[in-house]
Amino acid sequence: MNVTRRKSPSKKQRALEVLARLKNLYPDATCSLNYSTPLQLLVATILSAQCTDERVNKVTPALFKRFPDAASLANADLAALENLVRSTGFYRNKAKNIQGACRMIVSEFDSVVPNTMEQLLQLPGVARKTGNVVLAHAYGTNAGVTVDTHVKRLSQRLGLTKFTDPIRIEKDLMELLPQPDWENWSIRLIYHGRAVCKARSPLCQACGLSDLCPTGKKTLGAEEAIQNISKIDGESV
Ligand code: SF4
Questions:
Q1: 221 in the Ramachandran plot: left (φ > 0), alpha (ψ -120 to 50) or beta?
Q2: How far apart are CA 186 and CA 192, in angstroms?
Q3: Which of the residues 26, 87, 121, 140 has an alpha carbon 20 to 30 A from that of 180?
Q4: Where does [4Fe-4S] cluster bind (predicted)?
Q5: How far apart are CA 154 and CA 172, in angstroms?
Q6: What DSSP designation does 211 have?
Q7: Which of 56-65, 78-87, 118-127, 214-223 has the least mean pLDDT?
Q8: Residue 165 catalytic?
Q9: Catalytic residue among 23, 58, 77, 148, which?
Q10: At 131, is the secondary structure helix, strand, or coil?
Q11: How far does Cα 55 stand from its chain's mean position?
């Protein structure tokens, strides 16, 4: 009956304040994957599953030198492709999906990476996370909120979602945040997850969001979580 009440104004305000702080904390945050075409971004994003962007960026120069576009990847020798992406983990699956996606891009989309979520989701190995990254960074479209492992963890710790399923987390975040900020939310949250709100032990004392975060308040105590903010340089409360 009162499902809509779950997204209370206070939660929304808190999300907007977190967003504003993240913009201050990471003003230059951008996609960490190296690419020069939408196709290369798509491939790099597929490779980034269960792998760091840093590792992917070590692999892609040789990969893109040998197979620079959809046609060359579609016709690549699968074993050669697997070898080139081996160090990113799950390489057999990733190579198979990259080749399958490129074959479909060549045959169904005139060798151009599609620019709608609906079409992107037809490609092997592409779920909403990859679709959101490609649409936002290759085509400037905020179709949704990218939910990777950092966004999932931090959104939960910040009390902005109680779900574990990325699709439901994305839906919660889309309702809390303005559409133009959907992708920059994810990018900045990923930066914060890597630098401060680490998976095993979040550095709540060094966190510029502690007064807005239920987990930080629990860890530090409510008062300290608020005082903590004034100790952190460059932060406006
Ligand atoms: S206060 Fe702690 S749990 Fe909350 S966002 Fe910051 S580091 Fe993460």
A1: left
A2: 10
A3: 121
A4: 197, 204, 207, 213
A5: 13
A6: G
A7: 214-223
A8: no
A9: 148
A10: helix
A11: 16
